[in-house]
Amino acid sequence: MMSSARSPFIPFISSREVDNVLKYEDLIPVIEHALADFSRGKEGGVVQPLRTVCPVEDRNGRFFTMPCYSKNMGIIACKLMTSAPWPSEDDAPRVKIITALFGAHNGSLQAIVDSETLTSMRTAASSAVATKYLAPTGSRILTILGAGLVAGAHLEALAQVIQFSEIRVWTRTFSKAVTFAEKFGCAAFETAEEAVNNADVIVTVTRSHTPVLMSDWVKDGAHVNCVGAITPVQQELDPVLIRRAVIYVDSVQSASTESGDIVKSEANIFGEIGEVALGKLPARKNETTVFKSLGLAIEDAAASKLVYDKYYKPAGGN
Q1: pLDDT tens digits, residue range 198-216?
Q2: Which end of the chain has fewer CB atoms surrounding its CB within 10 Å, N or C?
Q3: The whole model's pTM is what?
């Protein structure tokens, strides 16, 4: 029989468990609420410093920390991530990510979440929020540039908000695009230009340092979710496209300093997608729009809490 004393055991929630319990129909509205809280400023109760990046120069890598506090959710969280071409052991993922979740009522550690799957899903969910508001009326063609884990997450998440009749994929290695297309039942293209021709919604999920999406390829009124480039030296979009489009971001502060697509293009940011969710900013649907996503710690906190609350929260706990 279990003692009434509090157990010192802290749950570790694996990516497999996250994948089993976290569903987009639950996650998308939670992420929308988190984005709205973030854009409320002080009223939203979110404290979130800019992420810190610690270079690991001898390994050509980086160590990221992303802390935040949400008064409304009653949680403190910090995501920790290493990214480097270190040798893989036992088929471990190249990017290693965890989120530590603390209760704000007493500061105690509640759970540690293996966040590779969680990060992909919360990123795709934020793009789904933006797509819901910004995709042109009657959208039917979705194009994804990139064929990794986050690309697959976007295909699944965006299908929750729009029923596309045609889905296309391109990546630099055509065989990878074919494998992705076979897995998800979509069409693989050999060139990005062909893949985005007449597309209504475009997602870029690459690690490119040079543009993979040119302005001339994108029809007027299309919506682009720019997701993959998350550092000042990376860039996925043609600067002409950035300057031509109405730019929405998850965080004006982050995008203005961390996004190569924004900084290199000297683009004017229209506002945050959370402001659209709040009704404080218009969704300029049917104009050419870009949602530049860098990912917010509040998204990781909200997604981690959703998993914890559904399956790991002690009965009667806070």
Answers
A1: 999 999 999 899 999 999 9
A2: N
A3: 0.91
